[in-house]
Amino acid sequence: MPDRRPRAAWRRPPAEPPATTSPEPPTERSSVVQASLYRDGRRVSSPATLADTFRQLREHPDGMAWIGLHRPTEEELHSLAAEFDLHELAVEDALEAHQRPKLERYGDTLFVVLRAARYLDAQEEVEFGELHLFVGPDFLITVRHGAAPDLSTVRHRMEKDPDLLALGPEAVLYAILDAVVDGYAPVVAGVQNDIDEIETEVFGGDPAVSRRIYELSREMVEFQRATRPLVGMLHGLMAGFAKYGTDEELQRYLRDVADHVTHTSERVDGFRQALTDILTVNATLVTQQQNAEMRALAEAGFEQNEEIKKISSWAAILFAPTLVGTIYGMNFDNMPELQWAAGYPFAILLMAVVCVSLYVIFKKRDWL
């Protein structure tokens, strides 16, 4: 963590008088959510502008500035960089946003990127925000991109505990880490509820469930990207306890946060695996349903073929006597069989033999 040294020991002296080295932020738009100065864990002032904050912090080198920004302009960040000697790469990252969670040290300043999350009940989806922190010996700057997290609750909580706030910017850093990690709990609960609903929909045969599984899987990928790097970041901070002389209370605080984020990361990994399994089960059920439909169509076609066979068989059987009767029903004088005494019995016998023969043949072939 940053060393708690007098401001003059770490900050480069301004090249010009203070009135000219701290330009006023643009009057058209200010992204400063709140700027406060603290001494011994208690707020002593709330400057209205960044310039006032810089001036008052110079007047009280034993104080701490806590500046909260929301989507700051380039001019505002550059004025902060000039005042607090922020590294240009960290400033560039804070301007661009869309960074992965990370922790980097630039001299006496820590640059931390966090991904906050919140669950939207109405839309049943997860919304992610991005938070950048600059943590120095006597200042902490938060740059927020997105609605989450709500740092006002962290500020109120810390102000109610002056002893903890008096430990400096690192105490605020741990409080923000705790707030971000605690904000994951409602998301985990909401996702668990969604997965339970999806399981019901899968076995209920809802055709729209595949899309819901896919969308939730994408959110879990983002959630995993937000939580997994935090485990390594927190263990990296814990590894520096002895080197930077971190207060014992803060050590316990950070270990608790590390336990929570490890648990959350494991739950998110479990959610991804569960969604993968559910997607596999859903694909299997869809395939089974399609096979059942194809089987039903095949059975219907088979039954239809059987009926056609029966109809065709009886048509053939009835066709034989019709043919014989038709021939002998023609009124021709030169038909020898007309004068034959056995002609009629022969015709009847012929019809019977043909019909019985066809019946036997069709019966053996299971057409009848």
Explain what the structure shows.
With 368 residues, the chain is α+β, with helices and mostly antiparallel strands. The protein has a 7-stranded mixed beta sheet, with helices on both faces. It is built from 13 helices and 7 strands. Residues 1-28 have low confidence and may be disordered. The termini are far apart.
Which overall shape is indicated by the principal axes computed on the Cα atoms? rod-shaped
Percent strand equals 5-15%
Global structural class:
alpha+beta
- Whole-number radius of gyration? 42 Å
The first-to-last residue Cα distance is: 92 Å
Low-confidence stretches are 1-28
Give helix % range.
55-70%
SS summary, helix count: 13
Order of helices and strands: HHEEHEHHEEEEHHHHHHHH
Question: Could you give the count of β-strands?
Answer: 7
Mind describing the biggest β-sheet?
Answer: 7 strands, mixed
Q: What is the average of the pLDDT values?
A: 81
Write out the strand line-up for the largest beta sheet, numbering strands in chain order. 2-1-3-7-6-5-4
